[in-house]
Protein 1
Amino acid sequence: ITRVGVFTSGGDSPGMNAAIRAVVRTALYKDKKVTGIYHGYQGMIDNTMFDMDSQSVSSIIQMGGTVLKTARCMEFKTTEGRAKAYEHVRTAGIDALVAIGGDGTFTGAEIFSREFNIPVMCIPGTIDNDLNGTDLTIGYDTANNTVIEAIDKIRDTAASHNRLFFIEVMGRDSGCIALNAGVAGGAEAILLPERETAIDELIDMLEQAADRKKSSMIVIVAEGDKNGGANNVARCVQEKVGYYDTKVSILGHLQRGGAPSSADRVLATRMGYAAVNELLKGNTRATVGVRGSEIVTTPLEEALSKKELKLNEDLVEIAKIMAL
Ligand code: ADP
């Protein structure tokens, strides 16, 4: 390997820049050259690439988003699109790739690597913490911190008005953010995509909380909750029990932005470093991850096929007890 290509793809997450920086600096340290590819797979097809040096990644560790930009690229899903991408990758002299992104990015990387026999290593970047082969993804900790800050602020106004607030957080398939934020924010109830909570069951929980004369009540609703999101849940509760003063807050994309937390910067730096070293050792078609305090790798085929249950079952129970 003489030149490593690095890119971010799919949804962005805070800490991606720290990962890019670690990839670039580790590769340079190992006397390899580095090419930055803009806009993920789209940039391979459009040939928007540039030579990176140590300076290219100065002062980016603290920045949210991704300096390499990201994109969703339909053309890369076609054989012709990937052939065009490979032609540009080859011409640039890139002989190994580091892909930072989520499930879709991993899928593309796996296919591309097999098709053109080019080594790839993936780094898990998404706030949802829904990837296999790792306990934690880059951006998850920051998103949790952002959500908790928002919940605390909403709690202030909820308490002043004796209101019932429904706060919708990100997570279409994964309740990780909802559960974590619910526990840390002292939510009265948490609705998760992995669990069905009937509206009547939720009302029971709220009545119990009201009996204990709680001055404010907060329900965290994951985006992917089976009742159809916070607006729907609030409407259903309102229809059944009219006396609550209900409000809805959908946190949305602010959860994806902001300066990465210390934990995410360190995780991203360790993963970026490991990704390059693994490639140089001959490891390929895999993703780096963290298990406990260890950095590990998992073949992409395995990471993409099985579904790990990320939800901490104990924490689900603890959350219920804490709300009593
Ligand atoms: P994420 O990586 O966050 O899951 P996407 O699902 O949008 O985001 O995937 C990112 C990109 O990966 C897609 O826009 C596409 O270019 C590429 N990709 C996803 N699935 C495939 C596939 N089956 N074949 C080839 N490329 C894919």
Note: The chain has a mean pLDDT of 96.
Protein 2
Amino acid sequence: GTATRDRLRIAIQKSGRLAEPARSLLAACGLSWRESRDKLFCYGESLPVDLLLVRDDDIPGLIADGVCDLGVVGRNELDEQAGERARNGLPPAYRELHGLGFGQCRLMLAVPEEWEWQGPQQLQGLRIATSYPAILAGWLQRQGIDAHVVELSGSVEIAPRLGTADLICDLVSSGATLAANHLKPVENLLDSEAVLAGPAGGFDDARAGLAQMLLRRVDGVLQLKD
Ligand code: PRP
Ligand code: ZN
Ligand code: MG
């Protein structure tokens, strides 16, 4: 929406890996909210900055629709949905404003342990299971590989054993899930971490100043960390 607002609304993950570090970072930036951990909306007290607790997958769309002004979300999710928009002929709706230094993971191709990996050309004609079809399709295209992308929303690592795919493309953090499923990582498609995302076009009301101040504070907090 284009409605003028004088409060900033930030979407963060309700529960999951990014939830607690996102809250801590924003608190370290001087934000505080009326305590309502069970609620999905937290009213900002120290500053006119409110929190919306949502599923991480919904954050890019909420920014694109103007429902939220900023979001803390994985670069993997942001890039995937940006790629999907591009494939549907839609203009970019959001952009990464700042890497946040937590939630690090990689989007990797992983193959059965016993495979001898010789390089991307080996993928020609194979079936790859993933929750990141747009990022994977873009990578395959750049490599000049024609392979079949099998889209799954979760438990991607089990696909080779089920015979629904030959290999997978999924997030790897500790590597424990791959190892448990007898898969080994072979190609890195994306280095991901939590990022602060905002609208491609920026703001033209009071939110511009609030967002600028928040970004400066985020920068300050992150510099203290290293
Ligand atoms: C992610 C990812 C992998 C796993 C990797 O799944 O999809 O399955 O974590 O982590 P590891 O390398 O430390 O084992 P998540 O637990 O977030 O669940 P989801 O796939 O259902 O989103
Ligand atoms: Zn998710
Ligand atoms: Mg998973």
Note: The mean pLDDT is 95.
Protein 3
Amino acid sequence: CSMVETSLPFYFGWFLCPTQQEKLRNMANEFLSAVGSLEAFKEHVGDCKYELMNLQQYFQDKGVLHCTTKFCDYGKANGAKEYAEKQVVRESYGSKADLVLTALFLTPRTLGAQVSLTEAQLQLWPEDAEKEAVQSADLPRGSRAHVTLGCAEGVDPVQTGLDLLEVVLQCQQGDKGEHVQDLELGPLTYYGKGVWMVKLSEPLNTPAIFSSFYG
Ligand code: A2P
């Protein structure tokens, strides 16, 4: 294989600073405790596969918290080389960005945070990230942006963005879910099939570094 292929990372993304990671993990734990103790959650638990009600154990940590921009798979993924060679990618490498986290969600598969990208941050977002996941729909660019906070056993982190897009798609189709109640973090909505989302009444601003992971 060529030098170019071997020098491409596993993925590019924004990596949260350690103190921010801890802050977000604490927030996620708060979210899990609040949702897990709701009567409404217990009533809906049969809709999915949550086994014991301990959600903190149900979702396994997936390492350093980040928002993936481009999954390159060391060059094997479509468009990896083109992405790595983009001027904006080269110029932004190593720079700081302030990510805005606007919601936390959990599904029977994943636990994640929704990221609302700014216009400048969208420059680093691959053109086809949403289309690659949901071919049939016209989803706003950046709507897949997220931080994976945990996955159920046997589930890969790539699922988190797909779960988020399902909610976005459902809303786009006019199904705004069922407002359950207001948590301390913000209003909680149930979207059916074990999917819960809290919209943060105070979005979390998180400094992060645009970089890559080689593994
Ligand atoms: P995510 O960005 O949702 O966390 P893994 O450990 O499964 O190999 O994945 C490594 C990272 O790359 C994770 O951050 C993961 O998801 C992301 N990722 C894996 N596969 C894909 C894919 N096909 N498209 C986009 N991102 C991916």
Note: The longest helix spans residues 18-36.
Protein 4
Amino acid sequence: SFSLKADWWGDKYSMFVHYGLYSIPAGVWNGNPVKEGYSEQILTFGIGFSDWYEAYTREFDAKNFDAEDIVALAKKAGMRSVVMTAKHHDGFCLFHTQTTSYNSFDGTPARRDLIGELAEACHRNGLGFGIYFSLIDWHFPAAVPFSSHNADPITPAHHEYNMAQVTELLTKYGAVDELWFDMGSLLPAQSEELYRLVHKLQPKCMVSGRLGNDYADFCVMPDNQFPDYDMILPWQTAASIFPETWGYRSWQERGEVSTKVNEKLEDLVNVVSRGGKYLLNIGPMGDGGIVPFEYEVLSAIGKELEPISEAI
Ligand code: JFZ
């Protein structure tokens, strides 16, 4: 109903978190910076072989990943909810799933369910909680093998796998306010089935337009863009701190905090004043710790927003 969507819509500024195995190589392969593609996609742009990439599971201890720290930063930044990658294109799951051992609980020394930890921290602190879920999967054997583009079709077995994982994500972690499906080129029947599943399990959960075939509760604009026409559906703009990557990139030239704060504040105002919702990304480091530059930028934005926090 409209009022349910208005609840979600009342929150106009949220945190996006890209964290996964890719945060360990952090945009470096064989000692060289991988300049092509986003760093969260280093498997396809830099490393190439799945077993070399999978070896990062042995290093994945997430020892500085603290959901309370992430939630505290979101609050400090003036944000009302957090959306984190439960599974990115690499197929590695940050939640404890029965569908594959390629997950942070069963498949790494961390032995932790990071999605569970973040969901709890959001709920405990009164923040909204959302999940990013990649529809393509470069690890699942029955999926279309990874290719040079991301809009691959979804095989029937892969669709069932996604259905099972989405079922887990929407039944084990309490209220999920947003499901940020991403990429993949689904058949209309596949988009419909996932859309209905989400609303059956969590009627209030908002589904992103990247599920495809017009099965959507909100539209996602390209990075830092806003529409120059009236939108019928609610819309959201996702933004990364640097447009080149969403996942952590160790060699990123970051420049001045103040320059970045002004740039992101301007984007936030442009989006929110046109009726959109701004989803600003952080990409924690390999150990899960927050990048100091990102901490400073978000804190400074929060300070600027203090006088108008009621309006956002
Ligand atoms: C997708 C992912 O491929 C990427 O790794 C990241 O997770 C991002 C948030 O989402 O990338 C996209 C997809 C579509 C657009 C931009 C980035 N777009 O429509 O401009």
Note: Residues 38, 40-41, 150, 182-183, 222-223, 238, 246 surround JFZ (CB under 6 Å).
